[in-house]
Design a protein that fits this description.
Blueprint: H1 7-10, E1 14-18, H2 23-39, E2 42-47, H3 52-55, E3 63-66, H4 70-75, E4 80-85, H5 91-100, E5 101-108, E6 118-121, H6 128-134, H7 155-167, E7 175-179, H8 193-205, E8 209-213, H9 219-226, E9 235-237, H10 244-251, E10 256-260, H11 263-270, E11 275-279, H12 284-287, E12 295-298, E13 309-310, E14 315-316, H13 324-327, H14 331-339
Parallel strand pairs: 1-2, 1-4, 2-3, 4-5, 5-6, 7-8, 7-10, 8-9, 10-11, 11-12
Antiparallel strand pairs: 13-14
Length: about 350
């Protein structure tokens, strides 16, 4: 691995970080970006509409550039000292990095790495957040974060959440958040609706209030689960009711958050809620909810087909086992972790 000269000798100032996709991995880039900011670099981030809300929710980024704004892109050609491509396999991100910066940093191992001046090996046996921070090694920065970076929210969001809880007549401190959906790239990486209903029923029996989270597109999926629960008085489907900052605020009210390997799981970990991540198609070594208090449940170590996802290579193999790896996570395992 080659490294740049020390910062003072080459006067590196402006850095472009490229992060185009996914809520979860956008959150996982924040420790790396904040470290750059704390070190004295000026950071812009190139985004799409999918990743943009994450970066709008922190205050240590100089400028957010939407890749759909062609005029902004043209104005930035070769305006950056360095670009850092955090995308693991997309060709367009490596091209944009080469176009917009004098030098570029990215992951080695696939054909597009010929566009990078400095290459870092993507280690798929360590956490993605650490892999992102490893990109800084070319800048002579060695850093492993202790925790993720919480998204910022204000009084407006706090008031919205208080109104929501009042409307739902929730005054309990025993609130469990459950996210049942997954990204469209691998919809088999979640539990079956019957198991979610079983978990929820047992939590309600223990006097917990349960909130089902998600986007508006996940509302009907949640309703199918609600319909399987006999006594749903303290069960509420709030999918689609909150934006990202409001959802971030709500998470701080949870005593625990349960989710498969998806963006809201990483958000919950970043916001400091005890987070239980459910794994099967992917492995916790790569994408566990980051932080000492968080738990990963993975029962598929003996299955040859797991893991069937590797984002570094763009591998999203279609499941032929009807989500067997997720079936190996028992209701009792999840409940035991909540009650500890």
């Amino acid at each position: 691995m080659s490294k740049l000269p020390k910062k003072k000798s080459v006067q590196i100032k402006k850095i472009l970080v490229i992060r185009l996709w996914t809520l979860g991995e956008s959150i996982l880039t924040l420790p790396m970006i904040k470290k750059l900011n704390d070190t004295g670099y000026e950071i812009d981030v190139l985004v799409t509409s999918r990743s943009k809300p994450v970066f709008e929710s922190v205050s240590f980024i100089n400028q957010i550039i939407d890749v759909s704004n062609v005029l902004d892109i043209l104005k930035k050609i070769q305006k950056y000292d360095i670009s850092i491509d955090t995308e693991p396999y997309m060709n367009i991100s490596s091209i944009m990095g080469k176009l917009l910066a004098n030098k570029s940093i990215g992951y080695s191992g696939i054909f597009r790495d010929k566009l990078y001046n400095f290459k870092i090996k993507y280690n798929d046996k360590i956490h993605a957040s650490v892999n992102f921070c490893n990109l800084l090694q070319s800048l002579n920065i060695n850093y492993v974060p202790d925790s993720l970076i919480p998204l910022e929210y204000g009084k407006k969001e706090e008031n919205k959440i208080m109104e929501l809880l009042d409307d739902l007549k929730i005054n309990s401190k025993k609130i469990i958040g459950i996210h049942c959906g997954t990204a469209e790239t691998a919809p088999w990486r979640t539990l079956k609706k019957e198991k979610f209903a079983e978990i929820i029923t047992k939590l309600l029996d223990k006097n917990y209030v349960v909130l089902l989270t998600g986007t508006s597109g996940e509302y009907l999926q949640n309703e199918k689960i609600v319909n399987l629960v006999d006594n749903s008085k303290n069960l509420h489907n709030i999918a689609g009711k909150l934006n990202l900052k409001e959802f971030s605020c709500l998470i701080t009210k949870f005593s625990c958050f349960i989710s498969p390997d998806t963006g809201p799981m990483h958000l919950a970990a970043a916001m400091g809620a005890k987070t239980i991540g459910l794994f099967g198609p992917n492995i916790p070594e790569r994408f566990a909810p980051y932080g000492h208090q968080n738990i990963s449940l993975y029962g598929a170590k003996t299955l040859e087909c797991s893991p069937c996802i590797n984002v570094h290579t763009g591998k999203f193999k279609e499941c032929t086992q009807n989500g067997k790896c997720m079936d190996l996570i028992s209701t009792e395992e999840i409940l035991n972790e909540i009650c500890e």
